[in-house]
Amino acid sequence: MHDQVNPAPRLDNQDPVLFGQTPSQTVGPFFHYGLPWKGCADLIGDSEIGARPELFPAEHYVLASPTAKGEVAGEPIVIEGAVLDADGKAVSDAMIEIWQADAAGRYVDGSSHSGFIGWGRASTGEDGVYRFVTIRPGRVDDQQAPHIAIGVFGRGVIKRLATRLYFEDDAANAADPILALVPAERRQTLIARKVGQAWRFDIVLQGDRETVFFDI
Amino acid sequence: MNPNFKREDAGQPPSLHAPYASTVPRSPRQPLVRIPHTLTETTGPSNAWPRLMGGAMADLTTQHKAMPQGQRIIVSGRVLDEDGRPVPNTVMEIWQANAAGRYIHKKDQWDAPLDPNFTGAGRVITDDEGRYQFVSIRPGAYPWGNHHNAWRPAHIHLSLLGPAFATRLVTQMYFPDDPLIEIDPIANAVPLPYRQRLVSRFDIETTKPNWALGYLFDVVLRGRDQTPFEDDHHA
Ligand SMILES: [Fe+2]
């Protein structure tokens, strides 16, 4: 009879000598059937924006649509923008995530069973454009201007790029402590502008108009 | 006040790693702006994942009419913070190629067979001790266009939210017996020895007789940090 013993392990994260943060890796180009669920970019309704079901067969659309969201207080808004690379080319395989407070400036962690959950995800289309439907957030902790935290993922993006969206018409921007840490000449990369019915927020990964990304 | 989270450790890869060619036009050149952790960074939808995404899907081999082709595997482990504390009730999303190394994705044009019985997408939730487990098939290696004769090592993509915006992590799990890891520009964006944190461990205890091979993979998220921002800024 054989003993049931493991082969000698190589050094890995189970080993106390090496133990530490698991390194980030890219989402790659093929995440569309595995990350965006039905409705992931609509934080207040049941539209199915944010996913790209045309990129895989219907019988493999296994990511469920969660239950209806119910009434949400606040001003509904649309946020949209293009993700662009160093050459100004549309990034058609990026994924954007958002995290935001509700209209009263509160973050809902889900421990209550009602209320707005300010977390969403959207794939970019072939034109590099992502789109969210949400509500306009309130001021956070009485100091920060209304803002939305943004994470950028994609093929060629080894680790998440973190940025923030602020609203062009908000007087509180002038005293926002995070905006104040950004060199004045680059601050406009964090400001969404109202274009038609939507708040436009392009994300430029590199170049003259490079978006400010944060070390958080 | 919510405690802050620790910053990146030395094992995190840089955004620009030129051997992985598509990082060159897609990584920022300006320095990152270091900001303190506010309520925005220290909160997250930690308990809201089922309301956000829907229920768990822990068996990737039973989503269609028949069993998928390939070597059945059990992947098990814990989600911990870097101080070794379990991260309970957090979601791990999973996606991968099939046994032949082909993704169920229209832009994957490699000439390897699709498997109608395998999608390769799943989702698990950690228990009170941070434990998770899912069943799948071992993905195949696949070629890609990064350089001549480039092949990705077999890997499973994993996505974790953790307790806060600051702890978000997307990674890839590799297999311990795979010679392609050493020559893969994506895995090698992570300097040694830290690259080894991405490699799972074969485990005979997790292995089920006459049924499936078992692999252990612990995922480690950022830990809590009580250091005030100013100190950490001048350190
Ligand atoms: Fe992959």
UniProtKB/TrEMBL annotation, chain A:
<feature type="domain" description="Intradiol ring-cleavage dioxygenases">
    <location>
        <begin position="79"/>
        <end position="107"/>
    </location>
</feature>
<comment type="similarity">
    <text>Belongs to the intradiol ring-cleavage dioxygenase family.</text>
</comment>
<dbReference type="GO" id="GO:0008199">
    <property type="term" value="F:ferric iron binding"/>
</dbReference>
<dbReference type="InterPro" id="IPR012786">
    <property type="entry name" value="Protocat_dOase_a"/>
</dbReference>
<protein>
    <submittedName>
        <fullName>Protocatechuate 3,4-dioxygenase alpha chain</fullName>
        <ecNumber>1.13.11.3</ecNumber>
    </submittedName>
</protein>
<dbReference type="Pfam" id="PF00775">
    <property type="entry name" value="Dioxygenase_C"/>
</dbReference>
<dbReference type="InterPro" id="IPR050770">
    <property type="entry name" value="Intradiol_RC_Dioxygenase"/>
</dbReference>
<dbReference type="InterPro" id="IPR015889">
    <property type="entry name" value="Intradiol_dOase_core"/>
</dbReference>
<dbReference type="InterPro" id="IPR000627">
    <property type="entry name" value="Intradiol_dOase_C"/>
</dbReference>
<keyword id="KW-0560">Oxidoreductase</keyword>
<keyword id="KW-0223">Dioxygenase</keyword>
<dbReference type="GO" id="GO:0018578">
    <property type="term" value="F:protocatechuate 3,4-dioxygenase activity"/>
</dbReference>
